[in-house]
Amino acid sequence: MSTHMALPPPSAYRLRHRERLAGLLGFTSAVLLLRLPIKHSVVIVGKLKRHTPKSATMDEAAAAVAAGRAAARWFPGRAACLENSLAAVLTALLLRRSLDWCIGARLMPYAAHAWVEAGGRPVGETASPDRPYLLLLRT
């Protein structure tokens, strides 16, 4: 089983079968995509989002995040914020919804983080982080 790094506890959201399947496919695709340079993953996600014009609601986004994280629990390697956020975006795309994939950083001490947003609001993140992240990339 994988180790989650700096992620909030799993949600109590009860996933449907199609969400679990989409989460598994989304997480597997995310792991494969992240073997490429990150710029390729960003381009691919951007192109896929163009074909999925309907944005996810907060409930649909929460389901995509929960499905990606549920699949990540069975992954024997590293499943941190980058893998889980990309899995949530790909899961939402498989469910014909789109999410924003965000990558940011903060200083003192330096830390990087990736997350998803729906309607400009983070999904599945702690309500009030101790220090906000500076958004570096949004797809």
From TrEMBL:
The keyword Calcium does not apply. Keywords: Membrane, Transmembrane, Transmembrane helix. The chain crosses the membrane at residues 21-38. The keyword RNA-binding does not apply. It comes from the Bacteria. Residues 39-133 form the Microcin J25-processing protein McjB C-terminal domain. This is Branched-subunit amino acid ABC-type transport system permease component.
